Amino acid sequence: MTVSTSPMAPEQLRELLSGDARSVAPQLLGSVLTHHSHEGTVAVRITEVEAYMGPGDSSHPDPGSHAFRGPTVRNAPMFSPAGRLYVYFTYGMHYCANIVCGPAGTASAVLLRAGEVVEGQHLALVRRPTSKSALDLAGGPARLATTLALTTADSGRDALADPFELRLPSVPATEFMSGPRVGVSGDGGSAAYPWRFWLPGDPTVSRYKAAKVRRA
DNA sequence: CTCCGGATCCTCT
DNA sequence: GAGGATCCGGAGG
Predict the structure, then answer these.
(1) Which segments of A121-185 does DSSP mark as H helices, in order?
(2) With 50 as the cut, is the pLDDT of residue A57 above it?
(3) pTM of the full predicted structure?
């Protein structure tokens, strides 16, 4: 797969990310997040994201957001300047990573849900030995975080500075899909919050699973 | 292919 | 004390 991204001055990129997550999220489709370490370099082209808002925007309260009830120790990076990482630990074993958006003081972030490993496939496979194909190296938010070696130690760090790089696509995605967010319980996961965005037809995007209906 | 349960512990109530 | 922005493997169709 051809990757076409363009370099951009960090301050220009940060300005772009300072919009709210719902408008920034689709612009991140096709972007490439790179992580360098002593182990090597892994780069992921983002194919699926979700927007989460904070309590500051009263016109769009987001009950699915970690920041819905205000700042806590865990979600503090969501309130920090655009371009930082917000990484959290969940289900007792998984990490998930967001790019913080919006101006400092608001809590707007984009969850990186899936991507394609475009550099460092071997290292990615070492980090995710259970992967059965290249497609699932970063096909899921926790898989993507593992592939890039992201943990809570990275939460609050700047994604636009060493050891990270973020490049937006040279041409923004002209077509993308949107729909309800995955795994969000309550109203926040309903069709009233169609804040999941993905590149149509990309094989790394998780197949949509409708919430299962249960009988009493 | 789909469905379902277990893993495992941090975070906030 | 409950539940989670998930993943994986096993059972069944």
Answers:
(1) 121-127, 141-147
(2) yes
(3) 0.95
